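Dear H.,

Thanks for agreeing to be a second pair of eyes. The structure we're designing against is below in token form, covering all 142 positions.
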């Protein structure tokens, strides 16, 4: 182990003993930042199709959308910046209460295909090819 990492691990281990095992308090999403080759289309998608609410905006560069106590930042990618891999199965899932009806109808009206589904979640792509899930799984049961 690298000496500086070993030292940190020892300090964290001692701190965990002193705090009853907790490293830090409960964590939640503060923000997600999606860098987008087509900022305008992606912003419209998250507002018009997914129904997210704008909380801050720097036109042409960044739009912040309300995300259950945090924010989703839609940002203009830099020239030449690589976008998401449209074949990747990596995804971000958002909680929705209106499945399957309303959201599926809005996706269909926007020409967005549902790639997959489970009993609680549907999967689709945003305009940049990023895989997105919309789920009704009851996390409060965890």
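And this is the sequence the design step returned. I haven't edited it by hand at all.
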């Amino acid at each position: 182990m690298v000496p500086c990492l070993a030292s940190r691990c020892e300090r964290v281990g001692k701190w965990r003993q002193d705090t009853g095992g907790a490293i830090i308090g409960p964590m939640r999403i503060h923000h997600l930042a999606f860098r987008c080759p087509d900022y305008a289309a992606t912003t419209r998608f998250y507002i018009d199709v997914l129904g997210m609410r704008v909380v801050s905006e720097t036109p042409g560069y960044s739009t912040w959308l309300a995300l259950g106590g945090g924010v989703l930042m839609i940002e203009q990618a830099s020239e030449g910046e690589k976008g998401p891999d449209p074949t990747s199965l990596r995804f971000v899932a958002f909680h929705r209460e209106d499945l399957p009806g309303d959201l599926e109808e809005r996706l269909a009206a926007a020409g967005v295909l549902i790639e997959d589904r489970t009993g609680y979640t549907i999967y689709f792509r945003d305009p940049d090819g990023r895989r997105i899930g919309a789920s009704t799984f009851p996390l409060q049961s965890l």
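Two observations from my side: Residues 3-18 form the longest helix (16 residues). DSSP finds three helices and eight strands in the chain.

Warmly,
E.
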